[in-house]
Amino acid sequence: HDLDSSEEAPPATQNFIIPKKEIHTVPDMGKWKRSQAYADYIGFILTLNEGVKGKKLTFEYRVSEEAENLVATVVPTHLAAAVPEVAVYLKESVGNSTRIDYGTGHEAAFAAFLCCLCKIGVLRVDDQIAITVFLLFATFPFPVMRKLQKTYRMEPAGSQGVWGLDDFQFLPFIWGSSQLIDHPYLEPRHFVDEKAVNENHKDYMFLECILFITEMKTGPFAEHSNQLWNISAVPSWSKVNQGLIRMYKAECLEKFPVIQHFKFGSLLPIHPVTSG
């Protein structure tokens, strides 16, 4: 499943709607798995996974205004009607204002926000998307959430404890492992090596994530991040990447506590996937 939204930007007559929750009980999860939204969301994640393969982060890793300006100015006037629908996903992605928690559901909302921008033709899914994703993900959710976690020690939403991959995020591990596929010398075993991480984290999302974990958690890596420790024994980055995609589907996209918060509209609809 591939999104080539540059050709299929929706007609200006499309009726945009404010997205709402549709997954109220565990049996509703079947509707999600069969939905157009699920097909489009996972298709988008996998397209980006291909787009970043073997690429370094091509910019300095710091929070910049570019992400905000990009979002503020991206939607052309003839698509102004889409703004309220698309904006819901951006709002959902910044976490819960009453309970200070943050987790993979919020991260999914941000990915859904980017997916919607592709569906209305504002972002193009081509090589540029890799740079856009690095820019947007690396300038908005990651540093902002890390700052919040450092400052407030935010509680992770639905933490798996030491058995989860990471309390707060998952996608940068998927895309980050894709970045490292066929790297001339960095292998999965190197991400538990402090020197390798310190020397390469600015170029690779995966190592940036590891650096952050080691800054936030104390004690032996094998104890506080058992899943990642196990992954460091996998022989190749492509195997790591495939395994993480399977794990993301099972641990995030197929878990009711995460998906009950996901919202559906005209761009990411709950109706069953239509072939074509």
UniProtKB/TrEMBL annotation:
SUPFAM superfamilies given for it?
PTPA-like
Record-level GO cellular component terms? cytoplasm; nucleus
- Source domain of life: Eukaryota
Q: What reactions does this protein catalyze? A: [protein]-peptidylproline (omega=180) = [protein]-peptidylproline (omega=0)
Q: What is its EC number?
A: 5.2.1.8
Subcellular location, in the record's words?
Answer: Cytoplasm; Nucleus
Alphabetically sorted, this entry's keywords are:
Acetylation, ATP-binding, Cytoplasm, Isomerase, Magnesium, Metal-binding, Nucleotide-binding, Nucleus, Rotamase
- Which EC class is this protein assigned? isomerase
Q: InterPro entries in the record, alphabetically?
A: Phstyr_phstse_ac, PTPA_C_lid, PTPA_sf
Q: Which GO terms describe its molecular function?
A: ATP binding; metal ion binding; peptidyl-prolyl cis-trans isomerase activity; phosphatase activator activity
Q: What does this protein do?
A: PPIases accelerate the folding of proteins. It catalyzes the cis-trans isomerization of proline imidic peptide bonds in oligopeptides. Acts as a regulatory subunit for serine/threonine-protein phosphatase 2A (PP2A). Modulates PP2A activity or substrate specificity, probably by inducing a conformational change in the catalytic subunit, a proposed direct target of the PPIase. Can reactivate inactive phosphatase PP2A-phosphatase methylesterase complexes (PP2A(i)) in presence of ATP and Mg(2+).
Please report which protein family the annotation says this sequence is part of.
Belongs to the PTPA-type PPIase family.
Protein name (database record): Serine/threonine-protein phosphatase 2A activator
Lineage runs:
Eukaryota, Metazoa, Chordata, Craniata, Vertebrata
